[in-house]
What we know:
heterodimer, A: Thrombin, subunit H, CATH 2.40.50.100, 4 domains, 14 helices, 32% helix, 23% strand, globular, B: 444 residues, elongated
Amino acid sequence: MEKINKMTKGTVAGIIANLVFVEVDGPVQQNEICYIDLEGTKLMAEVIKINGTQAYVQVFESTRGLKVNHTVEFTGHMLEVTLGPGILSKNYDGLQNDLDKMDGVFLKRGEHTNPLEDEKKWGFKPLAKAGDVLEAGGWIGEVKENWMPHKIMIPFKFKGKYTIKSVADAGEYTILDEIAVVTDEKGKEINLTMTQKWPVKLAIKAYKEKPRPFKLLETGVRVIDTLNPIAEGGTGFIPGPFGTGKTVLQHALSKQADADMIIVAACGERANEVVEIFTEFPELDDPRTGRKLMERTTIIANTSNMPVAAREASVYTAMTLAEYYRAMGLKVLLLADSTSRWAQALREMSNRMEELPGQDAFPMDLPAIISNFYSRAGFTYLNNGESGSITFIGTVSPAGGNLKEPVTESTKKAARCFYALSQARADSKRYPAIDALESYSKYAEYPELQDYFRKNIDPEWPEKITLARDILIRSREVSEQINILGDDGVPVEYHERFWKGEVMDFIICQQDAFDKVDCSASLKRQKEMLNKVLGIYHTNFTFESFEEVGTYFKRVINNMKQMNYAIYESDSYLEKEKELNSIIEERKTA
Amino acid sequence: METKAFQKIYTKITQITKATCSLKATGIGYEEMAIVHGRLAQVVKIMGEDVTLQIFSGTEGIPTNAEVVFLGRPPVLKVGEELSGRFFDAYGDPIDGRPAIEGEERQIGGPSVNPVRRKQPSEFIPTGIAGIDLNNALVTGQKIPFFADPDQPYNEVMAMVALRADADKIILGGMGLTNDDYLYYKHVFENAGALDRIISFVNTTENPPVERILVPDMALTAAEYFAVDKKQKVLVLLTDMTLYADALSIVSNRMDQIPSKDSMPGSLYSDLAKIYEKAVQFPDGGSITIIAVTTLSGGDITHAIPDNTGYITEGQLFLRKDTDIGKVVVDPFRSLSRLKQLVIGTKTRADHPQVMNAAIRLYADAANAKTKQENGFDLTDYDERTLNFAKDYSTKLLAIDVNIEVDQMLETSWTLFGEHFSKIEVGIKQEFVDKHWPKENEVK
């Protein structure tokens, strides 16, 4: 990435909404960042097309009042983020401006704030010593960021091998202080600080290899962990019509998932949802560390009323930050809500550029853009033998709830887990509205992951999951028959089969995200509950009439629900468990 | 709108379409306002010296030598306490025969609130309608539309909600209102003696449709003045947003943009979001709450307008005529208030969430029983009881003419549970059952 020596300048030649045409006086690069001077206010923009001496730029802010002949300065680099300690717990906009540093209630155009703190001192501890040879991403030292070891690395932009000449002693330093001197292969000395920059559109590849995911990522959501598990370093997506609980589910994941760091990219969604995170996360405890959730969370907020062009930037910014932390050997969970809004931003711009449209007026290269983005997630082995991962879960907001629309279709090809939210389940308040049968996890079929299950949960676990799904399928089939033939038109055993599926649905698939206890279930607890439900399935009961079946199983469900609501292995839990056993004994066929 | 001295007057229009005209001009700012042949217009495109203006009231009768004057500023609204009790058109000019107001000029369609400067909405807005307060509680800073077919009484319900809700100011943004509906609102507000806290921006079907585009921005600029400067609780009513979106599609069509789904502009989501996201709760007490109407065609919510709206707003309310009791009810299945979790059970009684869910689940069982009945199957005793419950529930709670406090709604629900069901069938947490189960039905 060579810098162009003399900075190119230009003047505004035309304006259509946030697409601006600029006459340039020198070389420009595709995706280069420039600033348009609107009477003192600097509007940030990105080059998206070049035609002769005219650059087409998309402006990340409102162009109100912009005039022909306003001057433009090009920066010589693409959209970059600043990487260094201080990113955790921050609230950024899509361009990595620190929202908390901005003045006033309203966002002002052209206001750019420092994403990090220049003055803050960090306790540095060297990890490398003089003479060590490292590559880009190699660990030089670490500082404590909240409670996490934040590694200071050889900048990702560096190519080849670097020899450490000197490293600063343990002590307090700011991000701008020199903490190491390295020499490149030609012997040139380079001074390093704790920060570096990276262009967001490019993937950070400072790792040795990316194996197939082979570990489970615990989320505490039963219908995911038990029935449709996602792997650490895996990708998943949640499409669903509005009102089916996409965001509630994402928030649940961000609160409970077993990850070192969570990055939430609120891309083109409701501002109040981001405010919910701002408000709740500093208060909520992280069950694994006992610290506040905000301490492991970074938020990229580009809500639906913020500039459209910055939506695209926001997901890339989020991914780049995730890659940075992955290179430190951390387990990162990246959530993006929603990638459809990003696709719509692409569509708006493609339309203004008068490009030939693809399906539903989306740009033709949409599938390529999406799969390229999902491919940046993954489990990696770093060059020093450590491992780090990015698990990525995106939501998709299909227009009209139609899963055949281009964004959903393209995402389906890229993501390995599919969590289908069903309108019918949402309507009958069966939350989370994930349809356990429509959804799938390709990871559940990975032999690597199946081994992991057998070793870490239960030797029979994969078979049990298959059986659980079968029970749900049979229950659904029977329910259709009952609807057609009537309650007394089918044998009593059919009702029993239906209700055993309902037990599975109510106790395993459904979960109360707003209940303090039920919102998250440990793997141990999930295993115990699944075994109980399967135990009921394997039990033969005696019933005289179909009315008895419904009444009986409603008692079973009610009892087991109280167990889900009770603190695991507490007195009330054990009491309900005893009660359940006696309920089962009542009807058990001798 | 007066022209100032020394303003350059252009008289050579080079191109005229149904909604726009173009001319050669220099030094023009994007989105600047202009007057073309006495009509208001706005800059929508600049290419070198060629400036394209969108003329809100249409281009009928505009000659190529018409006078064009640029005003050097984007559209503005004059704000001040004097706005209260007044009626304005889409440009912010009075239509009530009284003089124009004096006040500070504010640009409409201004910047967004920094998300970190918002406060999480947490104040319950009671409306007295159980279908709303009990099942879909509204919260200050929320944005929620009624999804209604054109034949449903949404304007009446909106007016009712507006007058019952506890707000310092009510701002009506009427887009494509029929003259009758406009007079209805005016009449209701006057009769309630509430006119001094109401401000209306109205575009009726008699006005050109493209003018509607300005109405939400005008209404929300006024709302921001009261919410930010005066720290007041402002309720904004927008009706009908479908007609607003239709006006957007007319403009984009005339500007040769490629239409996306349902011939709507590709930017529909962002355009609607810009309006609805003005709903906000500020930490110092000011707030803007938006209740809108989106009319549907034949109940189709997959159409681009309700679909995009649903992804932006915090829930939606459906009205339905319940033929069993002959009244309009707020549909408990399809309606949803996303922010209700922030107030129910905390700002209202602790049993509220569970009572709400249990009642809706039992009401759903009644719907299943009804299907069974219609298909000619025998009903069980439980089915019969759910049907009776559903009827009582509709009459005593869901019907929009019911006007009671939220505690009373909960009590009524418990009474109905006790009358029709056993404790196990209701399936509510034991502690609430112990506390609220009606004494006379203790045996169940």
